[in-house]
């Protein structure tokens, strides 16, 4: 059996971890049946890989999610395309090629990727002998606690949850069911993690917030005790090396179904809503609020106390000083409506030339005016 | 016993780790006595939580650190306020409410937070059987070395110091007394850490500085050996995932009482003074100097060799190319005096409109002038 | 024996880990012989440290890589300098001082640093009893697997490779020969790492790329399975806490001899060439391409799909939205040719003043024109 991936790492993966649901090559007709889509064209077209509509090979499946993709179809080499319902595809040759009409081409592609995904081997349930578990901790018997893990006093680990390797769970911390914590994850004392979460390696949850009274002539910086906690909902995904600080009082919270990319930093007392997407390397300062369904690009800086409204979007690299209204898209430093940012940065690219020319024209006008 | 925190994580914390010094509710009179403050008003006002002067509940203690807070007092619902000495509080009703006058309201609040802080259980002194300690390492008998830790040859760990879990100490590295290293901290060879420090989980101290001769046609990039070290003073706090690189020669140094937030990167040969505060995600390039008592915001970039003077401040998101003079506040990219940055960014927000209007007005003037 | 470093950490390093090849002080003549350079001047000048040409002490060796350094020589206190072939050094006093002419002063300095580098003690070959190795993993007998490490099923570790402490290797992952993985490094399933690599502590390789279909009214964000892998070439150096995500399909790849600094984030499907240098805290968005021999500064943001050409340079703090052409140097936000950025940021520093003055001059001209 071959898989759709071509990586060298897979060359000798003839066993265990790459058992996939799909056998390749697969015919367009069989794929249409599996996806419960409508076949338009030749059911025999053989498919063995995924490809771009512009340069994919003849044996590739591609996808058409909008008319801007559809216009490439007539000249594409790909044998078959997934097409979102309602999109016109001009120049189709049904005798030699195939279209599969589905409600949403992107979602159908996800279903295919899931089918060919080399399934990860879940560690067996139980506690590895090298793990150190406090006698007062409650570990569900179906949970898997890997080598070198530690679970502190009065903490609990829910059903089917997996702690991969060298994971640290502090004191009185509660992790829900069906959650996976990758190697090196640290969750400090008194935190709560929901069900069906996935945290990338070396994430750190529950470090003290960065709260100090500034130093004076008489004493050094005085630490403000951070006696709050961190509460993370269900179905949350965190990338590697994400840090989420505990609150000064109350809790730093992340809502259900929110997905956070690698190396994001969430400071104390942030309140992040449900269903948000936060891309890599973004910084949330203290007490930042992010509304439900917000989408935040990479390397963004949200200043202390900044508020991002529901369904708002923030472009990568933006610095939000105060707020982004509900539903709006902001960009730039300082962040402003994206259209305005586009125009201003466009002008900025020519600023020096503009300054020189204006100076020259003003001088000429002033000279004329004086004469 | 209840605590002032309301987090779900605390609901079943009826034991061990939340034993606090304060019993709640507490009367304003008792609190005044504990803080050695002057009570003005009703000593019987019961307090069970902390709150904001603008929207805290009747049972809340709030604080008044300046007259801008004081003006809210008359209409606040909070039963009691800590007031910094010398601040006038208009509209106080001493029959039903209470003020507690203290030298510094912020410091008094810290004292209260410390009193209600659920005390962390310190691991017992001694070396966990799973820790791997080189026979030539010197571990003070009062130190606590947690599971999965490693201490290399000729290294030393001072009195009462705690290595939580999976901490790595390299060869010939010296950690002082009363220091706490959270899980996953790595301190490489030949580094020095002072007393009473606290390093967040997964910090890495002593990685080689990033020094290479650029690649040429004849050879790849040539590594410049980084034979220096890292020297960290006393009372230093580092957040999670902070990285501090060793020097090429000599030492990368951080002064006493400096506090550094999560995911800060300090490159080789930086010299950071005493009593500085550096917020999350800030980058210190190679050979950067930061003076004593400087305050640096989040996501700041200090270019290689940049110099930040004593008592200087750098606003979040700034990019410092060369230097910030002693005592000054800089902001923006490139960093400039904050007032200038504010004006320039203000103009930038309207740049495109300005360019268009100037163009139009110049054209009209030129047409008039020609005619 | 003393070493050239002056750090406190070295005070009691009279054994093992600091055995160096060079004995100090060393005479200029002996050093010239060791470096196979040409001595010009007094062979007896004693050298015991390295120093800057501007303020190094009399016993210091300094270096002259260009005429801009050479002009300081006459007034420098340093006893000896390494000089790159072909550079004129005015005002040399050969009776009391020494110059050593070498093909490349920088490379000669590297050779000296290597000679005085306290050699790290390599752990003995073999597998520490606390390491957890899957029976199907292949560990070369010359490899050293430290305490608390884990190697998953069907993975392999090459000859002389060292896993320091608490390193995690997933399932079906292949690490080459002579590679060093510092403590806490995590390499997830199905990744490939080449020979002679060095990865800093707490790096994470092979986290899932951040791929989701955005949430809709009917469902939460839908995870796009990341079924690809990560392939890292030979002679790659990664700093601490670097994260490199696996590809959606195919592989995220880094070319031979590329060096990446601390806390860099490389998102899924990036293709980074050979011989590139990427400084600390830089972010590579999804599907970014970086050409061979490119040099990228610190805290740079490369937007999703951005392309940096071969031999191109990107200044620290830049935000690249689309591309940097081959061989060019870009800077600023958004990134533009460095010379243009310099001029535009120069104008930006005075923008507010410029706006005010233009307004005033236009008003005067308009008033004159009307009258």
Give the secondary structure arrangement, pairings included.
Three copies of one chain form a homotrimer.
Chain A: E1 26-27, H1 28-35, E2 38-41, E3 46-47, E4 49-50, E5 60-64, H2 67-70, E6 80-84, E7 98-102, H3 105-116, E8 126-127, E9 132-133, E10 138-139, E11 144-145, E12 150-151, E13 156-157, E14 162-163, E15 168-169, E16 174-175, E17 180-181, E18 186-187, E19 192-193, E20 198-199, E21 204-207, E22 212-213, E23 222-223, E24 229-232, E25 237-238, E26 243-245, E27 251-254, E28 259-260, E29 265-266, E30 271-272, E31 277-278, E32 283-284, E33 289-290, E34 295-296, E35 301-302, E36 307-308, E37 313-314, E38 319-320, E39 323-324, E40 329-331, E41 336-337, H4 338-349, H5 351-370
Parallel strand pairs in A: 4-5, 5-6, 6-7, 8-11, 9-12, 10-13, 11-14, 12-15, 13-16, 14-17, 15-18, 16-19, 17-20, 18-21, 19-24, 20-25, 21-26, 24-27, 25-28, 26-29, 27-30, 28-31, 29-32, 30-33, 31-34, 32-35, 33-36, 34-37, 35-38, 36-39, 37-40
Antiparallel strand pairs in A: 1-3, 2-7, 22-23, 40-41
């Amino acid at each position: 059996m071959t898989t759709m991936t071509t990586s060298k790492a897979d060359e000798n993966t003839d066993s265990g971890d790459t058992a996939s649901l799909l056998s390749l090559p697969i015919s367009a007709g069989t794929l249409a049946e599996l996806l419960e889509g409508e076949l338009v064209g030749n059911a025999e077209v053989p498919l063995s890989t995924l490809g771009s509509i512009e340069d994919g090979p003849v044996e590739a499946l591609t996808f058409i999610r909008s008319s801007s993709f559809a216009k490439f179809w007539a000249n594409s080499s790909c044998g078959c395309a997934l097409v979102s319902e309602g999109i016109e595809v001009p120049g189709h040759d049904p005798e030699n090629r195939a279209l599969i009409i589905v409600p949403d081409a992107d979602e159908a592609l996800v279903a295919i990727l899931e089918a060919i995904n080399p399934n990860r081997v879940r560690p067996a349930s139980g506690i590895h002998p090298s793990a150190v578990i406090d006698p007062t901790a409650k570990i569900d018997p179906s949970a898997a606690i890997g080598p070198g893990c530690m679970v502190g006093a009065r903490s609990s680990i829910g059903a089917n949850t997996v702690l991969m390797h060298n994971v640290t769970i502090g004191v009185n911390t509660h992790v829900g069911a069906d959650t996976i914590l990758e190697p090196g994850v640290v969750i400090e004392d008194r935190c709560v993690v929901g069900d069906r979460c996935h945290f990338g390696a070396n994430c750190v949850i529950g470090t003290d917030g960065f709260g100090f009274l500034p130093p004076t002539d008489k004493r050094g910086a005085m630490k403000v005790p951070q006696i709050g906690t961190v509460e993370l909902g269900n179905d949350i995904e965190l990338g590697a090396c994400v840090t989420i600080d505990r609150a000064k009082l109350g809790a730093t919270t992340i809502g259900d179904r929110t997905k956070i990319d690698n190396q994001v930093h969430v400071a104390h007392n942030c309140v992040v809503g449900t269903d948000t997407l936060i891309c890599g390397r973004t910084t949330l300062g203290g007490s930042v609020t992010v509304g439900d369904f917000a989408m935040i690009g990479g390397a963004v800086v949200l200043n202390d106390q900044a508020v991002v409204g529901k369904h708002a979007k923030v472009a990568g690299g933006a610095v939000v000083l105060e707020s982004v209204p509900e539903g709006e898209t902001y960009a730039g430093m300082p962040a402003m409506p994206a259209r305005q940012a586009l125009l201003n940065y466009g002008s900025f690219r020519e600023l020096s030339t503009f300054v020189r020319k204006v100076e020259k024209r003003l001088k000429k006008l002033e000279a004329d005016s004086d004469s």
